[in-house]
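Thread: Newbie trying to understand structure tokens

Hi all, I'm a second-year student working on a class project, and my supervisor (Dr. K.) asked me to get a predicted structure for one chain before our next meeting. I've only ever worked with sequences, so writing a 3D structure as a token string is new to me. If someone could post the tokens and maybe explain what I'm looking at, I'd be very grateful. Here's the chain:
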Amino acid sequence: MIRITISEEIARACPDVHILALSCQLTNTPSDPDLWEEIIAAEKQFRSQYVLSDINRIPSIQATRQVYKRLGKDPNRYRPSSEALCRRILRELPLYRIDTVVDMVNLLSIQTGYSIGAFDRDKIAGNHLFLGVGEAGELYHGIGRGELNIEGLPVYRDNAGGIGTPTSDEERTKIELSTKKLLMIINGYVGREGLADAGRLAAGLLKQYVSADHMEGELISYSNRIPISL
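---
Reply by user tm_fold:
Sure, no problem. This is what the structure looks like when written as tokens:
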């Protein structure tokens, strides 16, 4: 498992921040029809439970927005990915079909409300990720978004620069059909509760749809790292 540490600046903005990291080997495929049946069912369920005004009160989304504000970022201009996904569903806009891993991550985000990073492990530079805060002028290309201003956003950095924020992951380490090793990070700015359940849900989906094996999980806070069984 890659080593992940959290900066003091992030810990000050969110003292109860926890993240769940999951790594595995897999066989990615184009969009899976059975998975899309699950996604469509999850969309219908979500629309039956929420209206647009409810979204910012979903605990995991609300907590992420609060961290943005504490770091000086406007969450209405740079929405967390989970919030943007939920808003798209309630506006009845179609979700993008990318590939099975990315589609599965979207399903997991719908079901849990967490913003989730998914990275090709073989593209990550080095064996350490550091969760800090984006700086002015820091070069970052969000997937499908072009150059993204990440100043004031929580950002994971490897030895070559930023690879993930709750708003968008970076093009350099994105998942592709050729991806064989996955690193998934579930961002728990709302705290530890619920993260292990989300990790187990992720593990089940990965095993079902992309034949995941050699799976490892770790629950990480500012001061501790705990291996967990998935």
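A couple of things are worth pointing out once you decode it. The two ends are 14 Å apart (CA to CA). Residues 33-49 form the longest helix (17 residues). Feel free to ask follow-ups in this thread.
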